[in-house]
Design a protein that fits this description.
Blueprint (H helix, E strand, L loop, with lengths): L4 H27 L9 E7 L21 E8 L3 H30 L8 H17 L4 H63 L5 H17 L2 E11 L2 E12 L4 E7 L2 E8 L6 E6 L7 E2 L8 H10 L15 H23 L9 E3 L11 E3 L1 H5 L18 H11 L2 E4 L5 E5 L1 H41 L3 H34 L7
Antiparallel strand pairs: 1-2, 3-4, 4-5, 5-6, 6-7, 7-8, 9-10, 11-12
Helix pairs in contact: 1-11, 2-4, 2-5, 2-6, 2-10, 3-4, 3-9, 3-10, 4-5, 4-6, 4-7, 7-9, 7-10
Length: 511
């Protein structure tokens, strides 16, 4: 007994159909070779088996054969491990890039190479004092000292204003840029999760939606360090779908914060009511509480902005951000202004009557870099600067001016507002050390960024090798699938010829 004749036609038909599908998917890959975020697709095929289990009247003389091939679906070629590595590195890369830009903005403020900055003004003030020490009764020379002091305080005011502008720009970029993008991305991922769930329940494989979601997850990973996971959900008998969840991960404490779970998502907002800004989480995800999550941003662009805005370096109290950000450099300038004004106010107040050289421009009690100015008395009278100490009774003495010059050229102890010693050295050395700290931070961040760029590029290449479209490979596939299609068509032709021979051969069939 022969194998049922028309079973072979079904086998040939399936081969033609699968070969056509293979050609279609290959064509789709080629068409999307330049589509950003597109993941190479492949047809999942399997052999169709013939089962006689349970049949009571099968002939032992018939050789059972399979029934050809079938396409079970179209899947994407992705490596979840590579995705996880890429997204982790992407968070670090985003952090270094933003920090590099912000630190460069600060560097331009303290630039003493291309522009005449504070150190130049300090030298000019010292030179004016030295000239005045030779002519302590000359009002014209005294005017030169006052003018140099005015320029010095103006530079300090300018530095403070520019540091404030860098901080305010960072706050604006964080609030209007990163926070908005972060929230929009979370909502978009949650919406796509809902669409994917509906498609999968209906038996579809929404590869294009997967690509769109993966692109959004990559964008999210640039803003903070995340973990992506899936859980299987049974929606009906024998029907299960995967629910994707995304959490922000704080590796320093091991804390995870739910950002997306299926179609549910969290949102963040910026709180700028105090000196240090904070990030507040509002979540509708079951099990995730809302509240302040500022300290859990340890990587990504948002972390970089927070470090720039809140970083107080060695001026930070316990639990505060100790990165050397704008608050650190502002406090460094304040410490400089406070020490300078205290030193010269004390030296000039030889009679203990409050004859101060420096005061505040806004009337406040504490002198800072942003409000320091020469006193109104000195503004009105250039000779208000006392050239002689009270114990010096000589006419036309310059003893106090010499003490001021010594204060500029000698070591000074710099204390912050809390009374903590921050530095010992000259005023020029203090500013040099501050600029050197900034240069060191920039150099270190640049090294980190160069390394991160290399690693990220390597991971991106590895992902492209796995998931990207290669025209050479797809061209070879086109030839192979075309050959398989031609072979299946030839098989169909052979079957037709065999059937024609069987039916129309010489003689009467069946007699």
């Amino acid at each position: 007994m022969t194998t049922p004749t028309f079973l072979a036609f079904s086998t040939a038909s399936r081969a033609l159909s699968v070969s056509q599908t293979l050609l279609n998917i290959t064509g789709n890959n080629i068409a999307n070779v330049n589509t950003e975020g597109y993941t190479r697709q492949r047809v999942d095929i399997t052999s169709v088996s013939l089962s006689t289990t349970g049949q009571k009247f099968s002939s032992p003389n018939v050789t059972n054969t399979s029934q050809g091939v079938a396409a079970t679906g179209v899947s994407q070629i992705r490596d979840t491990f590579l995705d996880a590595r890429y997204r982790t590195e992407n968070a670090d890369n985003g952090r270094y890039e933003v920090l590099g830009n912000n630190l460069s903005d600060l560097e331009s403020i303290f630039d003493e190479i291309d522009t005449d900055g504070l150190q130049t003004q300090l030298s000019e003030f010292t030179a004016a004092l030295e000239t005045f020490s030779n002519s302590p009764t000359d009002e014209d020379v005294a005017l030169t000292v006052k003018t140099a002091a005015q320029s010095m305080t103006a530079i300090l005011n300018s530095y403070a204003q520019q540091v404030t502008e860098v901080r305010e720009q960072s706050i604006y970029d964080l609030e209007k840029g990163e926070v908005v993008d972060f929230n929009t991305t979370l909502q978009s991922i949650a919406d796509i999760n809902g669409q994917i769930r509906d498609e999968e329940i209906n038996g579809n494989t929404p590869n294009e939606l997967y690509d769109k979601r993966n692109s959004l997850i990559d964008a999210l990973s640039n803003m903070t360090k995340i973990k992506v996971s899936t859980t299987s959900e049974e929606v009906a008998n024998n029907i299960s779908v995967d629910t994707l969840s995304i959490s922000m991960y704080d590796e320093s404490t091991g804390t995870t914060i739910a950002l997306v779970s299926g179609s549910q998502y969290s949102q963040i907002s910026l709180n700028n009511d105090s000196s240090a800004v904070s990030i507040e989480l509002t979540s509708n995800i079951e099990g995730q509480s809302s509240g302040d999550i500022t300290d859990h941003f340890t990587s990504g662009t948002i972390s970089a902005y927070l470090d720039t805005i809140n970083g107080a370096g060695s001026y930070a109290s316990s639990g505060e951000n100790d990165y050397r950000g704008t608050l650190y450099y502002m406090e460094s300038l304040n410490t400089f202004a406070k020490t300078l004004s205290n030193t010269f106010n004390t030296l000039n107040d030889t009679g203990g009557t409050g004859a101060y050289l420096f005061a505040t421009a806004d009337g406040s009690s504490a002198i800072t870099a942003s409000n320091i100015t020469i006193s109104q008395e000195w503004e009105d009278d250039s000779m208000f600067l006392d050239a002689t100490i009270a114990s010096d009774t000589s006419t036309g003495g310059n003893s106090n001016i010499l003490l001021m010059i010594k204060a500029m050229d000698g070591d000074t102890s710099f204390y912050d507002s809390a009374g903590t010693l921050k530095f010992t050295g000259t005023y020029n050395e203090y500013m040099t050390a501050t600029a050197a700290e900034l240069a060191s931070d920039i150099s270190l961040n640049r090294d980190y960024q160069d390394t991160s760029d290399t690693v990220l590029s390597s991971l991106a290449d590895s992902r492209d090798a796995m998931s990207g479209v290669s025209l050479d490979e797809e061209g070879v596939n086109l030839l192979a699938y075309q050959k398989s299609y031609n072979a299946a068509a030839r098989f169909m032709t052979v079957l037709d010829e065999m059937m024609d021979t069987l039916i129309n051969s010489t003689g009467v069939v069946g007699r």
